[in-house]
Design a protein that fits this description.
The chain is built from 6 helices and no strands. It is mainly alpha-helical.
C-alpha cells in the first residue's frame, strides 16, 4: 500500500508541471479567436464559416447587440470586483499579489 501511494505521488509530481500546457489550449490563437471556437467551426465548410463571419460583422453594429455587450462587460467587471473582495475577505495577505495584476494588465495592453 505504501508503494502504491508513493508511485501515485511520483506520478502526480511528473504530471503537474504539464497542467499549464493543457490549459493553454483554450487561449486565443494568432487571429484572436479561441481554440474552443475553432473546434466548433471545424465541422463547417469554408463557405459556411464565411457566411457566419459576414452575418457576425453585420450584427455587431446593431444597437441591441452593442447594449448587450456593454451590459456583459459591466457584469464581468462587477464579477471581478466581487471575486476580488471575497478573496481578500478569505485571505487578506493576498493584497500585494492582487495589486500586481492590474499593473501587468496595463503593461500588456500598452
Amino acid at each position: 500500500m505504501k508503494t502504491l501511494s508513493f508511485l501515485c505521488i511520483i506520478a502526480l509530481c511528473l504530471v503537474a508541471p504539464t497542467a499549464p500546457l493543457a490549459l493553454a489550449q483554450n487561449q486565443p490563437n494568432a487571429d484572436g479567436r479561441g481554440a474552443r471556437w475553432q473546434q466548433k467551426l471545424a465541422g463547417l465548410s469554408a463557405a459556411e464559416r464565411e457566411q457566419l463571419r459576414t452575418a457576425h460583422c453585420k450584427a455587431v453594429p446593431d444597437p441591441a447587440v452593442r447594449a448587450a455587450q456593454i451590459k456583459m462587460r459591466q457584469a464581468h467587471r462587477d464579477f471581478r470586483e466581487a471575486m476580488r473582495s471575497s478573496m481578500l475577505k478569505a485571505d487578506p495577505t493576498i493584497q500585494p499579489i492582487l495589486n500586481k495584476i492590474p499593473e501587468a494588465r496595463a503593461r500588456r495592453d500598452s
